[in-house]
Amino acid sequence: MAEILAAGEAMERALALLEGGDVVAIPTETVYGLAADATNGVGVARIFEAKGRPRFNPLIAHVADLAMAERIALFDPLSKRLSQTFWPGPLTLVLPQRPGNGIHPLVTAGLDTIALRVPKGFGGELIARLGRPLAAPSANSSGKISATTAEAVAADLGAKIKLVVDGGATSVGLESTIVKIEGGKLRLLRPGGIAAEEIEAAAGMTLLRGAAGIEAPGMLASHYAPGAAVRVNAAKVARGEALLAFGPRRAEGWQGAAALRNLSATGDLREAATNLFAHMQDLDRSGAKTIAVEPIPFDGLGEAINDRLSRAAAPRDKID
Ligand code: TXA
Ligand code: MG
């Protein structure tokens, strides 16, 4: 079973594992990541093995700062401005790779672009100490809900990895927002922890929506799936369903719910994002066959929350 070490005590052990081509689960501000040295093919392969993830999914390379990012990718003025505004933080930029950057091709699934971000906290310090980027998808088995606590990581992947670094519950609770620069325009590949409106304000332009093809497989329909079926936009709750609530007013029939969690009693979307995955896991554990979800507004972080919920509700034949 994986050892769980507090972030304040885990640095040397994490470095030793990464230097040896092994994986380590680390906290970031968004969700926990399953990290390996992005220049080490064996380490990166272990990520896919532990997650049971198909190899065609490219991973995000996490860097310590803009200087490290510029050694890996080619920045235009707009992407530089966005990185200066939002890094460290939950923004991932997809950029052309700099030839000879040393990134193992398994990280990018052979694409000539690479997804980059600078995480806050322990992850950022770890990368600076290692001196090399870390490839890190969310630390969960493929198709499952992302983990926002060290305990959730250990429960899911503990038998397959050696170390989980415990940084407490993540502050954002949702994966990063992914944008791609396309000929001076910006495309939103995955809504996430920074609201699209904030990026639009910083960029001074509207984001293009809808990916060209399956570019960000975070976009595969049934991702983030709990064991129970998920029913979104529920105006009524059937007896025995679990209820994922939002805001001060309850859906009709809520008294008959088998279990209830409220994403935010005050209707605060940021608080709701932080609670999303942990509450889904709690309701899943209640044993109810269906989780009914009250309507959640689409503004701000609501876009990303609704995106994750609609994937959780999608038919399960498409799990990646
Ligand atoms: O918050 C996050 O982003 C977390 C933490 C650990 O940093 N990481 C995360 O990674 O969510 P992952 O691997 O679960 O999701 C990465 C997404 C995938 O949907 C992948 O397809 C997309 O990024 N992606 C990676 N490289 C890409 C590329 N070159 N072009 C387009 N999409 C890419
Ligand atoms: Mg994921």
From TrEMBL:
Q: Which PROSITE patterns match?
A: YRDC
Membrane-crossing segments per the record: none
Q: Does the keyword RNA-binding apply?
A: no
- Which terms are listed as keywords in the entry? ATP-binding, Cytoplasm, Nucleotide-binding, Nucleotidyltransferase, Transferase, tRNA processing
* Short name of one Pfam family: Sua5_C
UniProt keyword annotation of Nucleotidyltransferase present: yes
Write the Enzyme Commission number(s) for this entry: 2.7.7.87
Reactions listed under catalytic activity: L-threonine + hydrogencarbonate + ATP = L-threonylcarbamoyladenylate + diphosphate + H2O
Q: Which compartments does it reside in?
A: Cytoplasm
Main EC class of this protein?
A: transferase
Principal place of residence:
cytoplasm
**Which residue ranges does the record assign to the YrdC-like domain?**
8-194
Q: Which InterPro entries match?
A: DHBP_synth_RibB-like_a/b_dom, Sua5-like_dom, Sua5/YwlC_C, Sua5_C, T(6)A37_SUA5, TC-AMP_synthase_SUA5
Q: Its biological function?
A: Required for the formation of a threonylcarbamoyl group on adenosine at position 37 (t(6)A37) in tRNAs that read codons beginning with adenine.
Cross-referenced NCBIfam families: L-threonylcarbamoyladenylate synthase
**Listed PANTHER family:** SUA5, THREONYLCARBAMOYL-AMP SYNTHASE
As for family, the record states: Belongs to the SUA5 family.
- What's the protein called, per UniProt? Threonylcarbamoyl-AMP synthase
